[in-house]
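note to self: dont lose this again. the chain is below, predicted strucutre after it. 475 aa total, dont forget to put it in the shared folder this time
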Amino acid sequence: MTRVERLPLKMLVLAAGLLVFSLAAAQPVPTGFKDTDALLAEATALNAEILAPKNYASASKSYATARKYAESGRMDRSTKELVKTNTYLRQAIEAAKIAEVTFTDTLKARERAITAESARFEPALWSAAEDELVRAARKLEGGDLKGAKVSANRAGKAYTDTELAAIKTAIVGNARVLLAEADANPNKVERNAPITLTQARSLVAQAEASLDANRYERQQPKALAAEAEYQARHAMYLAGQVQKLQDRQMTAEELILKWEKPLRDIAGALEVTTDMSSGYAVASEAALERASSLVAMDSEKNMLISELEVQLDDTETALQRTERLKQQFADVESLFNSQEADLMVVNNDLVLRLTGLSFAPGRAVIDSSNYGLLSRVQRAIYIFNDANVIVEAHTDSQGEEDANLVLSQQRANAIRTYLLANSDIPLTRISSEGFGESRPIASNMYEDGRAQNRRIDIVFKNVRPGGPASARSAR
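---
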């Protein structure tokens, strides 16, 4: 084989070596890191960085070293560092759990400070409180329980103070900034608008005193702070106007006329006097009276509109109900012919008189020929699905009165039983009552009258239909 022929083989070997090296470099991090990462996540969740700072710092250092060794391919050294890391992390986890129990009150104070966004509003105080807690945790890790509790108590107080300071800053911070601007204002706000500036400062002090009394009741402090901000801005504006007078950039007359103009415009728009020949009192009182009158008129108008809207809603509801009841009445009416039933309205009740239903003399058994009629009665009950129903049974005056009363009740019960059978009508919707011969609608002297008195009425209670107001025969 010639030299030219051997050259490609050498290149092939070199390429293979490079491939092996590149594959080795591209190997994923050993699975040992997965266990370590899991421990690291657990330690982080327990705030081990703060509650177990010594072990957590040692773990972090060993972990970084293990990563470096792994990246350079020195896996044996990486593994040794991971073993150390895991040991430190397990110790940190245990130490953090112990700290959670030992520093319970301090950690609650810390959570309240976090809720108040102390790190945002009072970063220096927050950092100092965190440092004190770390000192407590270091002492606990070192076995100094007494010293740890002393430092933890200091940290707890620091967190409590930080929380209050953060709450104050969140509420009155803007007002404080404006007051600082006023103090640094070249227009000398302190000298030129002392009354308004003093009022702003007093409002801030009141807000802070209220928070000192109860840091969690913030409605009043917020209102005071908002007013303080307004007064601080107002003070700076007034100081600027006074300074212009002092610098002779405008005269006192120009300033007064400038301030009178908006009031004149308002009075004019309200169509009251704009006379300020004796000052602004007359015009301002007239404008105020007119504005108050318009507000009262507007309030009355709004109340009237509200009442009309309610009435309109009630009217629309009544109309809708009337239309619905008309349709229900028509639907029931269509179920029966004139030989089967009469449909009538009595006061607020709808009465379905079953003229086509009869019992054998002295009997309370429903004949099978009446099943179809009673099935349609069931459908009528479904149509008026929000009404309670009473089955009323009546007899003529033939026979003993007591016997007729018992017979009528038996017949009413039989009809109720049939209507409830094979249906999902609730039991409580239908009741039955027998009246015997006590409520005749015709004379019992003649057969025709007695036939009318022997009747079954299905009464739908309180339906208030908007349609017929007197008796109608069903079609």
